[in-house]
Amino acid sequence: MKIVHLGIRHSGWRGGVQTYIRELYTRTRNRGHSVGVYFVPKKGVCVESAPGIYSVDVPFSNDFVRLRLQNIYSNVLGAISDADLIHYHHYGPAFYSFIQALANKPTVYTFHGSAAVACDHSVKKHFIEWIEKRALRSCDRIVVVTKGLARLLDSYDISHTFIPHGADPQHGPISDQDIYERFGLRKGEYLLHVGRLLPAKGAAVLIQAFRKLKNASKPLVICGDSDNLAYIEQLRSLAYDSQGTVRLLGNVEDDLLHALYSNAYLFVSPLQIKGFPLAVVEAMSHGRCVVMSDAYETEEPHHAYGIRTAPGNVADLKKVLEELLVDEQKVAHWGAKAKAYVAKAHNWEKVVREYEDIYAQLTQHHRVKDCRKHT
What we know:
Largest sheet: 7 strands, parallel
Strand content: 15-25%
Distance between the termini: 25 Å
Shape: globular
């Protein structure tokens, strides 16, 4: 089967959605499928060379218009390609999925999160919500990755299939030698946060809480990048004032990132909007105790396997971190509990098999419809 993925702003496979697409791309190719990824290029980022990875760029100076033209162009390329199916990962290109309908190509849309929910501007929020609903209703099959998103789509009266994030089972600890040589970090001697550095992810709240700790015996390590330069500067300013106890490492990937997960004392994800970052699953798969905010959907099973704090509450997060920094037994208990849960509930191979079933159902259904048209 030939599959094309649309809806990724390529930034070196950085970020949860990018990682998700990379896993589907790699694993479905390994299972014999032909897979393409059409991505919107990001300035200044070197794109790794791989079969089926294509840059979709439109030379236009206005970024707002340029992005919309890229979404249309990528859809046209998908429609005229020999792909059997188009798989969307963002409402932008999914909004134009009618182009695939004209080409009689079935469409899947994996709904990773609602941009409307994260928007605090009333007019913009309603506009994005309208676009998201239009994109969701125009695709043949919708997949949600969290129970909270499933509940949101239920409120929209949109049918969907729930397929959770995947994770690779981690069978043992990873040596800290590489992260010591690169960053000077040792096993169990730092706190970790990984994710896109955006206000809604709560990195600034985390730094503020960390700086107020009375027993900050371990540094805070933050991995990730962002297009929000003003927010990056804010984080750098907060980190600078911490006198070296807060370290911004930028983007870290692959084996080095797994080594950071494996050797962290604990993992912190102070999300301020409803959601479920893939980094939380990855941290749990390495047996890390996870401190997460109550912004996480209470319907999510993982919610019972992390220590919760009030979203955006610096004092509450500070209190929890202070308690855990002096209670290694509690940290180890929650880490083991989280690892057992992820090994059972999150499996990339199972995720890929479920997508293959959806792909097969949709392509077969479209073949039947096409045959009926010509009889």
